[in-house]
Design brief:
By secondary structure, the chain is mainly α. The chain has helices at about 5-10, 20-30, 35-40, 45-55, 90-105, 110-120, 125-145, 145-160, 160-170, and strands at about 1-5, 35, 60. Helix content is about 60%, strand content about 5%. Helix 2 crosses helix 5, helix 5 (about 90-105) runs antiparallel to helix 6 and helix 6 (about 110-120) runs antiparallel to helix 7. The radius of gyration is 17 Å and the shape is globular.
Length: about 170
């Protein structure tokens, strides 16, 4: 089963709305087009309870739809790009925190803590992206270049456009 965010989830992820926990929000950010089992395995198994809660509350739904004969329609090949509302440094930071947690917390807790501290200390776009590049380099060592490339692409999708950043910084 592949999951996708609902309109309720998109509203939750829009700026200024905070009704879910940080972990639930990060799970929503990662949910579109991901398999149910992958999301359930997140957060040392707590992801299963979180996914169940998000499905029950209407934040997530099954991506496959059925027609009149009950045949499942094929799912799209890749998750859609984030909307402009989701493109933010805060979303990028949440994505990097989640990556650190999922990839390193069990295998190398000290490394996960170091990335968390570095992300907390990163106060601007450049320093946060430097931490992200370091994290991606570590992923390349552990999981290979292909996985690192996929993470880099997703990281680029989550960042706000340059024009939005320069406008926000000049305010």
């Amino acid at each position: 089963m592949l999951l996708q965010r609902t309109e309720k989830a998109r509203r939750e992820l829009s700026p200024g709305v905070r009704t879910l926990s940080l972990r639930e929000r990060s799970l929503l950010l990662l949910a579109d087009g991901r398999p149910l089992a992958e999301l359930q395995a997140m957060y040392n198994g707590i992801g299963a309870q979180m996914v169940e809660h998000l499905l029950h509350e209407g934040y997530l739904t099954d991506l496959a739809t059925t027609d009149a004969t009950g045949t499942a329609a094929p799912a799209p090949p890749a998750p859609p790009e984030p909307t402009e509302a989701l493109r933010s440094l805060a979303g990028t930071r949440m994505y990097l925190f989640d990556l650190s947690e999922r990839l390193f917390a069990r295998r190398d807790p000290d490394l996960a803590r170091a990335y968390h501290a570095a992300l907390r200390a990163a106060r601007d776009r450049q320093s946060m992206l430097e931490v992200g590049e370091s994290l991606i380099a570590e992923v390349a060592k552990v999981a290979g270049q292909e996985r690192a490339h996929g993470i880099r692409e997703r990281l680029e999708q989550l960042q706000p456009p340059e024009r939005a950043l320069s406008a926000a910084m000049s305010d």
